[in-house]
Amino acid sequence: MFSSLLLDEPILEAIDKLGFKEMTEVQSAAIPSGLEGRDMIVNARTGSGKTLAYVVPMLQQILDNPQSLTQAIILAPTRDLCRQINKQCTLLARYTDISTAIIIGGEDPKHQIKALEKYPDIIIATPGRLLEHVKRDMIVLDAISILVLDEADRMLAMGFSDDVISIASQCNEEVQTVLYSASFNQNKFSELIEAILVEPEIILVDSSRESNENVIQQKILADDNTHKLKLCQYLLENEAFSKAIIFANKKETVNQISSALQSKNIANAFIHGDVEQDTRNRLLRNFRKDDLNVLVATDVASRGLDIPELDLIINFDVPRNGEDYMHRIGRTGRMDESGRAITLVNANEWNNMISIENFLKIDCEERRIKPLTAKFTGPENRKTSGKSYGSKRKKSKKVKKAKKKIKNRARDRKNIGKRRKPSEKKAGDNIVGE
């Protein structure tokens, strides 16, 4: 129960207003240590309530130690995740005077400078844009007493490690640093941990390799992209769902899916890296408000989005790895809600799908849609891992070229450079045979 925690009434009231009664596993494990000001590494599966787990102790510490300068920074890898975090912060701080500011790319820095001049209590930012403002002397980092890294695994993958270390090294010496990740790997994080954390408490409550019991996970075999488009259309027209996201690996594929669905009178919107931030925000608002119920997206939508009543995920392309798969399907089945994740798999993607299942220790139910059964029924010959045997390439024998034997005769060497000119005939000389 949240009421058992030593929290001020305004925070408890906001939590109650949001309808949260019982703490999730990660909240129960992380909030008490957060209130003590300890450095932490928290492994929390997406959708497990991790944002509230670090925002609540942050708000309480700010109420306990108010100051005129910014006290806390939350770093996240993407703009959309920053917006989602800010929304949660605002809701939890609604009955307090605690203020927040978002510092992300794709927006006018002038507006951000105005927000920073008011010294918000909490800054939610992407690392690169935050450092730009630090160089402008718009942020006093040595006043920062709380630093949270959300989705640290993604920040490392995106190459933000040096930026994060730079920011952390300029914060207050007594700064509390908290690292949240959905997939904690000691080796990957070793350099970051050594640089910015001091004797961190490690809390491993949700493993990324644990199957999400709230999500039914299925796979449907497909022959090619044309077949996959027909499967998508069938699922959207026949599957019972409130909202759905179709994920693809490439922007071009997202555009093709969206156009194909529109041609079949299935209303949808698409988002990817080339879509302007303002347009992306508007589409996501429409998606949340039920003005839109089908979204086609790349992995920019796989992290940080908390969409109510999102109960269907379709992986048009098999994700590149297990972590991407986990984050995609983590958009549904959040906070004990139920959902369904369906992955469309062709022959070229079979081995990758098996690798994901083995990595996450899951076994996706193989489903068939009778009107659209694929010709591809899986590989005939499979290894014990489930992967197909590849056809071995025969090594081409190198044909030795026959070397021309060159005689190295003494008489040839002797006459090199000594070519005789033919003698001129003199008048009166007799020619043999005339």
Structural description of this entry:
The protein has 434 residues and is an alpha/beta fold. It has two domains: 2-204, Rossmann fold (3-Layer(aba) Sandwich), CATH 3.40.50.300; 215-372, P-loop containing nucleotide triphosphate hydrolases (Rossmann fold, 3-Layer(aba) Sandwich), CATH 3.40.50.300. The protein is 36% helix and 15% strand. It has helices spanning 9-17, 25-35, 50-64, 79-92, 109-117, 127-135, 152-157, 161-170, 186-196, 225-238, 251-263, 277-288, 322-329, 350-360, 410-415; strands at 40-43, 72-75, 100-103, 122-125, 146-149, 176-181, 201-204, 215-221, 243-247, 269-271, 294-297, 310-315, 339-345, 365-367. The strands form two sheets. The protein has a seven-stranded parallel sheet, sandwiched between helices. It has a seven-stranded parallel sheet with strand order 10-11-9-12-13-8-14, sandwiched between helices. Strand 12, helix 13 and strand 13 form a beta-alpha-beta unit. Helix 3 crosses helix 4 (79-92) and helix 6 crosses helix 8 (161-170). Residues 430-434 have low confidence and may be disordered.
In CATH, the homologous superfamily of the largest domain goes by the name P-loop containing nucleotide triphosphate hydrolases
Strand content: 5-15%
CATH class of the largest domain: Alpha Beta
Count of individual beta strands: 14
